[in-house]
Write the structure tokens for this entry.
Amino acid sequence: MASVLVVEDDQFVRSALIRHLTEASHTVRSVGTALEALREVAHVRYDVVILDLGLPDLDGAEALKMLRGITDVPVIIATARDDESEIVRLLNDGADDYLTKPFSVEHLSARMAAVLRRARGSAGAEPPSRVLRVGGLRVDPLRRQAELDGVQLDLTRREFDLLAFLAGRPGVVVARKELLAEVWQQSYGDDQTIDVHLSWLRRKLGETAARPRYLHTLRGVGVKLEPPR
């Protein structure tokens, strides 16, 4: 079972989440503000954080950025906001998943299980020992470092996993289903998740979907990484 931090200021929602997660044999700690959450993750190692956006002291989106500055703990956003552009921005800023309120406890359990499988799968997998080179890209899976033309890339955990997976198969078209299974550790999911991370990775590689250099999308087929021609 998991160690869970619930960041929620609504006492009714907070109590319901604590009760459900405890009944599911998880260890639960809850706080009502962003600053309390930051103090918690700075001193305690959690398996997953459930983060509300409407916090009294700091908007949850800003709290997410601050969390990502000090920890790579998986974060599930719990929000009443359903604006697509904001959801995309949250994923770009490091959220692992999101739930739109109101949601059922069964839905939360399923999302938590998927996030934890991905996190534990990534941690338990044995990374390639060799440094991967594709054109001016240099990817070191053991050190989890990537460089482009000698300049280190500032990648999130998921961006690095995606780049390393594709760099290990240069020139090979990888289906989206395979990316979900190998990088996200799930058998099904929303293509938007892949698109968001590919878009953000492209930006850091200095390219766009319209003018690709390394990352090439084949509509209806998949994605490949190859050196510029």
